[in-house]
Amino acid sequence: MNKKSFSERDICTKYITPALEKSGWDKHLQILEEVSFTDGKIYVRGAFVARGKRKRADYILYYKPNIPIAIIEAKDNKHSIRAGIQQALDYARILDIPCVFSSNGDGFFFHDRTETDVDIEKEIGMDEFPTPYELWEKYKKYKGITTPNAEKIASQNYFFDGSGRRPRYYQQIAVNRTVEAIANGQNRILLVMATGTGKTYTAFQIIHRLWKSGAKKRILFLADRNALIDQTKRGDFKHFKDKMTVVKRRQIDKSFEVYLALYQGLSGNEASTDVYKQFSREFFDLIIIDECHRGSAKEDSSWREILNYFATATHIGLTATPKETYEASNIEYFGDPIYTYSLRQGIDDGFLAPYRVIRIALNIDAEGWRPEQGKTDKEGNLVEDRIYNRRDFDKNLVIDERTDLVALKLTEFLKGYDRFAKSIVFCVDIDHAERMRTALAKQNPDLVAENYKYIMQITGDNDEGKRELDNFINPEERYPVIATTSELMTTGVDAQTCKVIVLDANINSMTKFKQIIGRGTRINEEYGKFYFTILDFRNATDLFADPDFDGEPIRIKPVSEDTDLSDIIDEEETNDTPIIDEETGEEIILAPPTPLAEPPMPPEPPMPREKVYVNGVDVSVLISRELHFDQHGKPITTSLKDHTREIIHGRFASLEDFLNNWNTSERKEAIIAELMEQGVMVEALRDAVDRQVDLFDLICHVAYDQPPLTRKERANNVKKRNYFTKYGAQARKVLEALLDKYADQGIENIENINILTVPPINEFGSVTEIIKAFGSRDKYEIAIKELQNELYKIA
Fold it and tell me: Beta partners for 220?
């Protein structure tokens, strides 16, 4: 047969795979074909969700499982040998792979990312493909692995538990880069991975590989919350079995190899309570610092002293939100991140849930509130005459009606969405969380009567609420449904099925904002969690527009030792998340900073202002609207129509260009998916124009000023043209039924042959019988194509 008649898959089977095996590659252990390495971005279409296209590599070659060293993009023989190289290079950049190949079955085009001279690209024959050893040598060059000991560590096997679980591509990169950096002698490492992307599993694989290779023998995993330690012990770290212990009640047992500990369990306010000093300074080889943006980020904190004490160990910091202020710097301590996997990347890859944002502006928040003359609080005291604003509410001044209205709007939303959708309400403080629980209970008396745990206050001071935290985050437990909190649930809570985040707290810290948003980003398909909704009562979501929200961390803290920090006021630091003692609910005050120079006498601290509680205030909703975000995750500031017009003009130069693409496309759904990936919000656009029109009319109307027709009008126009007369009676009935389906549901459904299995079309017979009415499968598909052309005729 002529090679040019072969499909791409035929080229792989008949030419590429045999060439690889001939060069010594193990088909079962080292060659993976058609590797999908993303899950496909989730798109929300009204009440439905759909996934976009997965990124898929034709071949990935591994030196060992999870150590990828080469990628191959295959094309059929109608293409040139070089045709796949650009796509392969893009995937190689994403996957951190040094050796890149394209092939059409005639040979290989090799791009060597380890080279910088004329040898960077070359053609080689089908019988000249490099051996595993040759590409492993290039991988070592790419990674700077130069010694036998470093190679031994870098090639250590991953842990496999027999379940088939494999690291996702970004976890694989994080693990490999970290292990390779340590093999090359690096002792301070920072990994930045968005909440919900599996930092603990990544840490486990790093530890296990270093432990099994003998590079690290005793390991300490440090966290600042019991929930983090408990989740780690019960989760991925369970495979350490009897080699692992949790440090409890300040009791030290030196016979274990892996230790999990709270900072608070190792140190105290007095030197005599610093139990970590019972270990020698050289006891640990490796320390993992979870949520490293918190207590130990300050170099003068008492918790940092633990890290300083074990200074000879390798320190790895894990965080979703590296902290960079004038007083605290993760980058100064650990260096630049060795790898960053952001929230936007996670959403684009389909590993994290996208979000809807609904902003609700209350009249007193937008306009401020000034008490009328003689206004008294609930205790009969005069209220200070001044204008109170959003920053005051629930911190200095409590207005009962405001709390009640927030509770009402959340309840209304859940009634229209799902009253059992797990929801977290972030409040100003514990008092606010307590009052919010009461207000929500009043709005939901039926469900609270059914089970009082429907709404729970989960704060550091509430023992009953804290005991319910595990139930809240357990997908299998129905209750609690709504949790009101202030600080306890901002970080370290793996809430897989949380579908609603309510922001009723003033959030000035980007670190805190990212952590709160991270409570909703996990996906759980089994329980129908694909996206989450943010109800914002405080304009906190303005932070989405900040370049720092999803950008690379930038070092702020100056390096100079003689910098006078007393002149610097940093809002992020002064408003940052306090660290809460889980037993008492009180804020933990870390050791005060040591001044760099003799400070001036501090002014007398102001007396804390007691809250004022008032009622009888008119509180109403000024406006409630949904925010829309572009493909880069930034809020759209222009109108939805202008934003859509800009995207479409960037893709299609003219109406004629769009019509040609639409009419020649094999599947209209492919164009719809492409436009959605570029940022066209189809459902929101339908709401803005007309829900009865399909994407074709939306585009023609918004981008090219064509009058839109509804799907029903288009269907009726086809019927008026007597288009069906050329078909037999049975085929006509099928096409008329498909036309009715189009009028009801849109073009995507009639393109799918499975539509023949649903009522009323299946009443005409089985799929085989229906296709037989058209003569053959090919003739049926031609009929559908012609039907589409009739539907989209421009008068």
Answer: 259, 287
List the beta bridge partners of residue 123.
Answer: 109
- pLDDT category of residue 372 using cuts at 50, 70 and 90: very high
Residues 6+ apart with CB under 8 A from 110: 99, 100, 101, 121, 122, 123, 124
d(CA 32, CA 122): 24
**Cβ neighbourhood burial of 229 (10 Å; 0-12, 13-18, 19+):** buried
d(CA 465, CA 479): 12
Q: What separation, in Å, do the N-terminal and C-terminal C-alpha atoms of the chain show? A: 47
Give the DSSP letter string of 272-307: GG-GGGGS-TTS-SEEEETTTTSGGGBTTSHHHHHH
**What's residue 555's pLDDT?**
39
Q: In whole angstroms, what is the distance from residue 287 CA to residue 219 CA?
A: 6
pLDDT greater than 50 at residue 351 = yes
- Residue 563: how many CB atoms within 10 A of its CB? 14
359, 413 Cβ separation under 8 angstroms:
no
- Structure tokens of 273? 């309570």
Structure tokens at 740: 């009715």
Q: Contact at 8 Å (CB) between 568 and 560?
A: no
Q: What's the farthest any 2 CA atoms get from each other in the chain?
A: 97
Do the Cβ atoms of 233 and 203 come closer than 8 Å? no
CB atoms within 10 A of CB 22: 12
Inform me whether the pLDDT recorded for 735 exceeds 70: yes
Determine if the peptide bond prior to 371 is cis (ω within 30°).
no
Of the CA atoms within 13 Å of residue 494, those in its CB half-sphere come to 19
What pLDDT, in 10s, does the model give residues 674-686? 777 766 766 666 6
> CB–CB of 42/354 below 8 Å?
yes
What does the pLDDT look like over 168-190, one tens digit per residue? 999 999 999 999 999 999 999 99
Q: Which residue has the tokens 């494999």?
A: 166
Which of 241-255, 290-304, 617-631, 705-719 is least confident? 290-304
Alpha helices in 444-486 (DSSP H): 445-450, 463-467, 469-473
The DSSP bridge partners found for residue 74 are: 103
What are the CA-CA distances from residue 494 to residues 196, 272, 775 (Å)? 8, 35, 56
